[in-house]
Amino acid sequence: xxxxxxxxxxxxxxxxxxxxxxxxxxxxxxxxxxxxxxxxxxxxxxxxxxxxxxxxxxxxxxxxxxxxxxxxxxxxxxxxxxxxxxxxxxxxxxxxxxxxxxxxxxxxxxxxxxxxxxxxxxxxxxxxxxxxxxxxxxxxxxxxxxxxxxxxxxxxxxxxxxxxxxxxxx
Length: 170
Hints:
single chain; 4-stranded antiparallel beta sheet; mainly beta; Neuraminidase; 33% strand
């Protein structure tokens, strides 16, 4: 990245669209752009032990990594293809959990980089397109599986919705 350049205060990149939110604006906070060229990004998760931030560029089918270093930081690709990764978290042991639209599964990246699949079906039917998740303090994985990633080929692969019953699953 570029050498350090001070940010003006208040940061002009922060725009308040509703004046009722002005009371929440922190005048000395700034926004830093880490990357460009993403079609649609979301899902950041920070790993302090590795000094890196991971996030998803879903339509480009990749996971990006920003690593802190003395020069200000380094941007790289963590995984490509990512199976249209969308939604991620980490467990208490610091392992990465990922929702994958393309493979219709939830994965865990182990410390050695191997991929484990904790969930890829419900009652024998493929998941729709896992989207967001959390691992609770007991190690239980909670996730959503709406149809976004199977509606078309933009953020996954078009497929039929196998889990049409939207009642609460137990």
